[in-house]
Design goal:
Strand order of the largest sheet: 6-7-8-3-9-10
Distance between the termini: 31 Å
CATH class of the largest domain: Alpha Beta
CATH architecture of the largest domain: 3-Layer(aba) Sandwich
Helix content: 25-40%
Shape: globular
Number of helices: 8
């Protein structure tokens, strides 16, 4: 995908190039231009100048584009069932797909209800089902804070569903929950002042420490991939069997990066050479006499995992 667009009225300038498949995470502080980016791609701005290309074709009604906005919009005079059935009439998926999605997201009891009878979270789940139903091969999917009203369990289910679609289409996902992007995104865009100030693969972004991006790594523990944040990791010189800390992994320091009073410690553990980061006060580095090559224990609680 290639984007090169500007707007004088809304004062933005977006320059982006990325793969035509996968999940692109869009992140930044409030007011940085995340929603404006999706609106611009969708063609909602009359003064937009430039091009949006997907699969080497300009996005002008040629490519199918699905957009789920921050505030789900459902047809008020139709039941949930009728809203979803309408989406099916404009999609290549069938009723079986709809039934499976409804079941996965726990929406069975909502089908006969009207939008004004739904909670915010229920509306989001229905809008998300509708968005997934409209996904076709080589389609463009724009999701603006699609899980903001969902609880942790339902977010996990929704994210797992989203991953199942990313091999056949391109998904742009806006969220304030960086852990969600670390979990499912392939590429990260960091927006600032209505421009893309940083773009990288998710692995490189997680280790970059750019702006307000928290440093983290994906590690396999107990057979499951997990997101572990540097802020949640401490370092011990010896394993403590009497501690409440769930995980104390024998590791070796591979790098030390000091910035003012804080040092980022990169740790290697396991035969697969997985990496964990710890963010420590520089005084602690001196106190523990930490140096590259030293054997230590990376300690963190399982409650800190992104499940």
């Amino acid at each position: 995908m290639k984007i090169a667009i500007t707007s004088k009225r809304l004062n933005y300038r977006y320059q982006i190039e990325c793969a035509d498949k996968g999940i692109v995470g869009v992140y930044g502080i409030s007011g940085s231009g995340k929603s404006s980016l999706l609106d611009a791609i969708a063609g909602y701005h009359e003064d937009r100048l430039g091009i949006v290309e997907y699969n080497n074709k300009e996005l002008k009604g040629i490519i199918k584009c699905c957009y789920m906005s921050q505030h789900p919009i459902l047809f008020a005079h139709w039941t949930v069932e009728e809203n979803l059935q309408f989406a099916l009439t404009h999609a290549s998926q069938n009723s079986k797909d709809k039934e499976q999605l409804v079941q996965h997201l726990g929406c069975e009891k909502l089908l006969k209800m009207y939008p004004n009878q739904l909670s915010g979270g229920e509306k989001q789940r229905i809008a998300f089902v509708r968005a997934l139903l409209q996904i076709e091969k080589n389609s463009l999917v724009l999701l603006d804070e699609p899980f903001s009203a969902l609880d942790k369990k339902m977010r996990k289910i929704a994210l797992d569903l989203l991953e199942q679609y990313k091999q056949s289409c391109l998904i742009l996902l806006v969220t304030h929950e960086i852990a969600e992007l670390y979990q499912v995104a392939d590429t990260l865009l960091y927006l600032k002042n209505n421009t893309v100030s940083y773009q990288n693969s998710i692995e490189m972004a997680m280790a970059s420490g750019h702006e307000s991006l928290p440093v983290a790594s994906t590690v396999t523990i107990d057979g499951q991939p997990r997101i572990v944040f540097a802020e949640d990791v401490s370092i011990a010189l010896q394993k403590n069997p009497e501690s409440s800390i769930s995980y104390q992994l024998e590791s070796h320091i591979t790098a030390l990066q000091t910035q003012t009073n804080v040092t980022l410690v990169k740790l290697s553990y396991s035969k697969e050479k997985q990496f964990i980061y710890a963010r420590l006060m520089t005084d602690s580095i001196k106190k523990l006499n930490l140096f590259v090559g030293k054997k230590v224990f990376a300690c963190f609680k399982c409650s800190n995992f992104m499940d």
